[in-house]
Amino acid sequence: MDKKAFAMGNGKGKAKELSPQDAALLIQMNYRAHLAHRSQVLSCLRDLAVAKAKLKELRSLFYNLSYRCRLWHDHEERQRFFEKIIVLLLTVEALEVTKELLCTEDILPSI
């Protein structure tokens, strides 16, 4: 068996050799961290797709001339439309914060 496969370098001095069990455990931990990170990213992408669909819906409503006339005259409908816009903006802001956390998070330890 090649001992280099189980060597763990820390960038300083001699590389520490790992047993096959320790190497397997290290690989397993890193893979689980990778899966957790990927799951978070996919969840954010799903949320982004939902926000994009809501934006498309709001845009189509706004460009609908009869709906725009109704917004102009009906205060309650205008209030509902503005609330939808605020919810969309808050959703996008939450996604932006999550994206920043995912980008700055140091999930995988240096090997």
Description:
- The chain has one domain.
- Residues 107-111 have low confidence and may be disordered.
- The longest helix is centred in the middle third of the chain and has 44 residues, at 20-63.
- It is 75% helix and 4% strand.
- It has 111 residues and is mainly α.
- It starts with 6 loop residues before the first strand and ends in a 7-residue tail after the last helix.
- 0% of the residues are buried.
- Strand 1 and strand 2 (16-17) form a beta hairpin.
- It has 3 helices and 2 strands, in the order ββααα.
- It is rod-shaped, with a radius of gyration of 25 Å.
What count of domains describes the coordinates? Answer: 1
The end-to-end span amounts to 20 Å
**What is the residue-mean pLDDT, rounded to a whole number?**
83
Q: SSE string, helix = H, strand = E? A: EEHHH
What's the total helix number? 3
The value of Rg in angstroms is 25 Å
Enumerate the strands of the largest sheet in spatial order, edge to edge or round the barrel.
Answer: 1-2
Q: Helical content, roughly?
A: over 70%
Poorly predicted runs of 5 or more residues: 107-111
Largest sheet features = 2 strands, antiparallel
**Which structural category fits the helices and strands?**
mainly alpha
Strand content: under 5%
Structural shape: rod-shaped
Total beta-strand segments: 2
GO biological process, one term: protein folding
Keywords: Chaperone
InterPro entries: BAG5/6/7/8
